[in-house]
Amino acid sequence: MGNVVVIGSQWGDEGKGKIVDWLSERADVVVRFQGGHNAGHTLVVDGVSYKLSLMPSGVVRQGKLSVIGNGVVFDPHAFVAEKGRLAAQGVEISPQSLRIADNAALILSVHRELDAIRETSSTGTKIGTTGRGIGPAYEDKVGRRAIRVMDLANVDVLPERIERLLAHHNPLRRGLGQAEIDPAAILEELTSVAAEITPYIDRVWRLLDERRKAGERILFEGAQGTLLDIDHGTYPFVTSSNTVAGQAAAGSGLGPSSIGFVLGITKAYTTRVGEGPFPTEQDNEVGQFLGEAGHEFGTVTGRKRRCGWFDAVLVRQAVAVNGIHGLALTKLDVLDGLDEIKVGVGYRLDGKVIDYLPASLADQRRAEPVYETFEGWRETTRGARRWSDLPAQAIKYVRHIEELVGAPVTLLSTSPEREDTILVRDPFQD
Ligand code: GDP
Ligand code: IMO
Ligand code: MG
User: Fold this and answer.
1) C-beta of residue 3 within 8 angstroms of C-beta of residue 209
2) Consecutive sets of 10 residues in the chain, 430 residues long: mean pLDDT of each?
3) What's the CA gap between 228 and 247, in Å, rounded?
4) 226: CA distance to ligand 1 center in Å?
5) Given ligand 2 and candidates 51, 107, 239, 266, which is best to mutate, with the most ligand atoms within 8 Å of its CB?
């Protein structure tokens, strides 16, 4: 198949960054295709930790091309700040190593402010967003009034673009009791950063088409997870983009026939940050154990992640909506030492057991998980690099997950470190 798309099969933070970093050794190009700097992808190489938000995880390896696709909402100031943080860690980013799609929509201060206003308002639904302005920026994109990356290369068009944008935002702000925005402030916000972005701007659809024709391997890096997808997730407690594998094509400009192997990154238990339903949540000592053993604190906001048992119903649904060919199962080591491990295998709703997550929020909240209980293992799996290093009981758990969700484990991760990864099947060779 050649190319690989990595997506989260739960509520994000499954370990996508680690797996993309590991796989990028075998790839030539790494492409982000949705989301923005709401993502927090952690890679650990020889004990050094790198936290990436807007940058594709390929930037850490020399000689790889990183691409920010059109489906991403791009905050130019966040880009410059992240580039500076990485430079301080010895990772240099240049127009030779990274390209940004000319047709990606921008995130501006007006979006961040609106995100914050909504999240702190006493009316409306608090989502528990990352506060990065992601939702408002996508709204403007779909509303056909966004300022785009290409506009930074043509500052003459900016006053007209800003006027169109503020014709929407200023009346909205007045209604929310906020001060109106002066167009000159937005113009300054954009012109002050334009020169740092323009060298990176590219016609990404063509670039990817050329690389594909040259036989290069393309790795797509999803952000968030399937249950945060705007269509398939726990709406309205979702992010504002499509996070599923199908978006890799639309969000990069490479056609769906070139997407290749779909790798679903899957945590051996479940976590969620922010508000919204979470049927297998363990708001008790089990959740506390998982949170402590798994260091479950948000990469972007530092918030404590909610923790619970593995939910096979959700992942089976993710296998279907993404067309997942194989799983990368992560954080198995976090379960080390538990006497028993539970797995959600269905939900009880109105006296019936169902095998899917209902679309309605009210039903999602009422759905009670049906569990199977497994015996745990005493030995450690942490740092295992061979299948034969795993305790028999841990292998049994992995095999059962495969069966329940209907997809094989292609990769297994046993610690945050890059090399603590077991390859079962090479997704690039499939
Ligand atoms: P992402 O958003 O999907 O890239 O995931 P995050 O980076 O937000 O969160 C995953 C966390 O788990 C990070 O701190 C990783 O370093 C860590 N991690 C990844 N894989 C493993 C693993 O197999 N075992 C353990 N213990 N930690 C892991
Ligand atoms: P990675 O790529 C986990 C969650 C937020 C909130 C909801 C909407 O690191 O897996 P947004 O700021 O996107 O409008 O917030 O989505 N969220 C994430 N949760 N991992 C992420 O990314 C997330 N990105 C957004 O917590 O509930
Ligand atoms: Mg994350």
Assistant:
1) no
2) 93 98 97 98 95 97 97 98 98 97 98 96 90 98 98 96 98 96 98 98 98 97 98 98 98 96 98 97 97 90 93 98 98 97 98 97 97 96 96 97 98 97 92
3) 13
4) 17
5) 239
Which CATH superfamily is 267-429 part of? Adenylosuccinate Synthetase, subunit A, domain 3 (3.90.170.10)
Of 348, 272, 265, 277, nearest to 308 by C-alpha is 272
Encoded tokens for 62: 């020399």
Q: Ligand 2: distance of its center to the CA of 202 in Å?
A: 27
Residue 266 Cα to ligand 1 midpoint, Å, equals 11
CA angle, residues 275, 278, 283, in degrees to nearest 5: 90
Instruction: Write the residue with the smallest CA distance to atom 13 of ligand 1.
Output: 42
How far is 315 from 337, CA to CA, in rounded Å?
24
| Class for the domain spanning 105-197 | mainly alpha
Write down the domain spans for the chain.
Answer: 4-101+200-261, 105-197, 267-429
Q: 409 CB contacts (<8 Å, ≥6 apart)?
A: 326, 327, 328, 329, 398, 401, 402, 424
